[in-house]
Structures are given as C-alpha cells and as structure tokens.
Amino acid sequence: MSIARDSAASDTTPAPGAARAGTSTPGGSQGTLQLALATLGFLVNFWAWALLGPLGPGIKERLDLSFAAQSLLVAVPVVVGSLGRVPVGALTDRYGARVVFPLVTLATIVPVLTLSVVSSYPALIVTGFFLGIGGTAFAVGVPLVSGWYPPARRGFAIGVFGVGMGGTAIANFTTVRLADTYGARTPFLLVAAILAGYAILSFLLLRDAPGRARPTGSAWQRLSTVGRLTVTWQLCFLYAVGFGGFVAFSVYLPAYLRTAYGLDAADGALRTAGFVVLAVAARPLGGWLSDRLHPVPVLVWCFGGVAAFAVVQAFQPALMPVGTVALLGMAVLLGAASGAVFALVGKVAPADQVGAVTGLVGAAGGLGGFVPPLVMGWVYGSQGSYAIGLMLLSDVALAAAVFTAVKMAGLAARES
Hints:
Elements: H1 3-12, H2 18-23, H3 28-49, H4 52-63, H5 67-83, H6 85-95, H7 97-115, H8 121-131, H9 138-148, H10 151-161, H11 167-182, H12 186-205, H13 219-227, H14 230-261, H15 265-292, H16 295-314, H17 319-348, H18 354-383, H19 387-407, H20 409-415
C-alpha cells in the first residue's frame, strides 16, 4: 500500500471528533500559553534526560570503562525514553496532557535525585533506565499542541514545541561546569527542583484543547490500529534518521570530540551544546518550510545534505573550520528534518490518534539515537577510527532521501 493511499484514508475518513478538532481549535492567547507550557515541560524533562551524556567521559575515566561500556551508559536513557513514548502517547490520548504531563515530570525527579548519590556502574545503568522517563515527555506535548492549532499552522507550532529538545543543550552547557564549580551533586539537585516546580505549574495551568477527540477502546487496540497503517512505519523510519541522528550526536559528541580531537570534557560539552542549539533553532524552520512548501521536499534536501556532510566528517578533517562546518551543518539539517517529519504527522494522523502515532514515531526516533552511539563505540574500539560509523550514517541518510523522494512523491503531488 502506498503512502498516498494510507494518508488519503486518514484525511478523507477522519476518526470521530477529527473535524471538531480541526475547526473549533481555539487560538489566541490560550493556545500560545499552552504551547509555551508544553515547550517548557519538554525542555526541563529533556534537560533531565540528557544529564548523563556530558558526564560520560568523566565517568569512563573514573570507573576505567571501555568505549562500549561508556556508550551503553549514555544510550540506556535514550532507549527507555524512546520505547516509553508508545504507552505514554496512548495514555495522553486517553487521559489528556493535563494529567499525564505532571505525572511524567514527577516520576523523572526520582532517578535525577538518585544520580546524586550513586557511583557504581551497575547502579548508574539502573538509574539511567528510569531516567529515560523524562524522554517520554515528547509524546505528551505533540498531541496537546496539535489539539490547540489548526492544520495550516500545526507544522510551525509543533516545530516551536520541538525547541524543547534544547534541554539537551542546557545539560551540555551546565552539567560539567556546575559539577566542577559547586560539587558533583549540584546539577542533579538543581534539575530535580526545576522539575518539581514545573510539575506544580503544569498541574495548575495546563489545559487540553476544547473538543479534544477522546478515543474508544483500550490502549492496545489504539496502538494496533495505528500500527496497521503503512504511513506510521514510513514516518517511523524518517524520524529514526532525523531525530535519531540528532539524539545520537547530542549524547555521543562529547566522547567523539574528546577522542578524535583531544578536547577536554568542558570544551567538548560546550561544542556539543552549540550543535544542539543549532538543531533546536532549525526545528521550527523545518516546520515552517513544511507548512509553506510540503514536508516531502524539505526532507529530501535535509537528508541529502546530512549524507554529504557525514562523508566529509568521515575523513576526520581539521576541527577548524571544516570539521566544525560539517558537524554544525548536520545539526541544522537534522533539526529541520525532525520538524518536517512531525509536520507530516500533523497532516496524515487521525485527530483522535495523534498521541498513539506520536508515541510510535517518537519511539522510532529515540531508538534511532540509541543504536549509533553503540556502533560508534564498538567501531572505534575495534578499528581505532570513527570513519566507518560516519560512512554508515551517510548511507542511511542517503537512503532516507531516496525513500522520501520516491515513495512519498505521490503524497506531495496529491496535496500540492
């Protein structure tokens, strides 16, 4: 079945409540407030989710870990946060973001506080597992924002919400510096306090959109329904490459810069934060371009550019200027691609199943970020070079560009 046929079924036979969600969506100050609250919640939960990444190199040296063990440590929260988006997205469809967002935020406080007192590798792995809860916040915010904005503005609105992934930049900017200046526990205590404050704020002010479509049936039935749509898995693949590439760089770039270019932990974390900031800024741009052009051509250009930059970086050029240009170029393109994929979700997902679709697609994006750090660590440990891993990234990005251009051209033509 082609994507055009799947999306046509979604658009021409909307689920109950879909029309209501598209036509009676309030705008103005209330919609802006809810978008701001959702973005803030995404940011603080992602800040918590990314705490182990900048500390990874220091933990490796302190515990004398292998490259593979370090990669596993920073990847565990990613995979848990990714898989957790599936049930959390379904729960958001059922109970609404007003209920689920504060609960996810409160649950994230526990592993953050635990990280301030544990030090052994097994304890860090277990705590990192539960830290992954913070990564599920994405699947709460997308259906909330989608409900407050009509389709013509949804791509940009979801792109603005995606700015919340800048929480990983804050983690890279602050974690090592706070630990070095004020003590190892300081970053965790600070983030836990901010999470608690947001949980209270969201409980008081967060509101689901009027006329929100409430699904029928169990969470498993809803996931099974969206899982039978070919378009769901096509979106999963694209988001695994776009957002997965961003996540992989955001958690592994400090280790890569330290090993490949000899940077210290603080400098590596600072440069990684710059990578994240550019990706975050580009995400609304990807949504805005998708609203005005179409997500399909935006994705083709983004993935094609990532493939080219990855080839350049595979030869490990001098960090200034070529390496920096290649890495930051990938940041912009991966961020824009992430925004474009969810602009496409807003066009083709049934209104009462946005949370379930978001959960599956978001899980794929997070899992796309779980595999590359493990591959990079294994490749470097066995070959002493990152070239093979970067060439694999180029191959996958090029495949995504070709897949989008060939398999989704019908969708772009039908909606033009």
